[in-house]
């Protein structure tokens, strides 16, 4: 009976030791591997799992921008379901509204639309989907990064030049980078950040950043 209890205790200690080893040794290794290769692995899984979906249809392909709806939304020349064109909502960036049914025209909205129009309208751009989050937004719009002919990414250029805000409500691959770009734009007082007041910022941003433009 004593021997059985000893064996049971030893097995329990061995099991607990293996669990501890997993948490303290294997998990950090897993985090490092995910950081290095996770994006490519998720991309491979998406491509393999959805061969006929949005990934194959849009990712890494070049299209022409037919229309700019506002600073963060545009149409490209490929049918999407029953629609003649595909409407894209830029990932990770939000620009002041110009046509919202309840918000109306916001400060710096026309300037943001003009900026996106200047950079993208009529241009051949590359659509890049993300491995983080959804590929479609709440209104069925494709969520994407837009790479311009000069290699720059439209999403980042909007934030960097002060024509929009880093969107903080949903995760994406450039989340930290876009936050940094927005902070640099704020510090340098470029674009809308030169004269914007807190009341002119969107409600979601005031909620996420209660410190932003709190004082003159």
Structural write-up:
- It contains six helices and seven strands; from the N terminus they run H-H-E-E-E-E-H-E-E-H-E-H-H.
- The protein has helices at 2-49, 54-58, 109-120, 154-160, 175-188, 203-208; strands at residues 61-70, 73-76, 86-90, 93-94, 124-128, 142-147, 165-166.
- The protein has 216 residues and is an alpha+beta fold.
- The chain has one domain: OB fold (Dihydrolipoamide Acetyltransferase, E2P), CATH 2.40.50.
- Strands 1-2-3-6-5 form a five-stranded mixed beta barrel.
- Strand 1 (61-70) and strand 2 form a beta hairpin.
- Mean pLDDT is 83; it is low at 18-35 and 41-52.
- The protein starts with a helix and ends in an 8-residue tail after the last helix.
- The radius of gyration is 23 Å and the shape is globular.
Average residue pLDDT:
83
Number of structurally distinct domains: 1
Subunit organisation of the chains: single chain
Radius of gyration: 23 Å
Residues in helix, %: 40-55%
CATH topology call: OB fold (Dihydrolipoamide Acetyltransferase, E2P)
| Total E-strand runs | 7
The biggest beta sheet, please? 5 strands, mixed, barrel
Strand content is: 15-25%
CATH architecture: Beta Barrel
Ranges with pLDDT <50 over ≥5 residues?
Answer: 18-35, 41-52
| Spatial arrangement of strands, main beta sheet | 1-2-3-6-5
CATH class reads Mainly Beta
Give the ordered list of helices and strands: HHEEEEHEEHEHH
Report the structural category: alpha+beta
Count of runs of 4 or more consecutive helical residues: 6
Which geometry do the CA atoms define? globular
Distance between the termini: 78 Å
């Amino acid at each position: 009976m004593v021997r059985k209890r000893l064996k049971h205790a030893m097995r329990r200690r061995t099991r607990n030791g293996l669990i501890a080893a997993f948490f303290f040794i294997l998990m950090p290794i897993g985090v490092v591997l995910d950081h290095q290769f996770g994006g490519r692995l998720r991309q491979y899984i998406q491509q393999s799992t959805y061969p006929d979906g949005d990934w194959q249809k849009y990712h890494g392909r070049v299209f022409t921008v037919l229309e700019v709806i506002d600073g963060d939304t545009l149409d490209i020349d490929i049918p999407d379901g029953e629609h003649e064109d595909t409407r894209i909502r830029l990932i990770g960036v939000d620009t002041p509204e110009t046509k919202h049914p309840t918000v109306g025209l916001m400060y710096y909205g026309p300037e943001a639309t003009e900026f996106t129009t200047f950079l993208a309208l009529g241009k051949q751009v590359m659509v890049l989907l993300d491995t983080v989050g959804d590929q479609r937004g709440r209104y069925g719009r494709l969520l994407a990064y837009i790479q311009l002919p000069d290699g720059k990414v439209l999403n980042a250029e909007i934030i960097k030049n002060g024509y929009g805000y880093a969107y903080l409500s949903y995760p994406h691959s450039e989340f930290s980078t876009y936050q940094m770009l927005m902070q640099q734009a704020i510090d340098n007082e470029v674009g809308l950040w030169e004269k914007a007041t807190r009341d002119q910022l969107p409600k979601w941003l005031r909620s996420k950043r209660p410190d932003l433009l709190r004082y003159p």
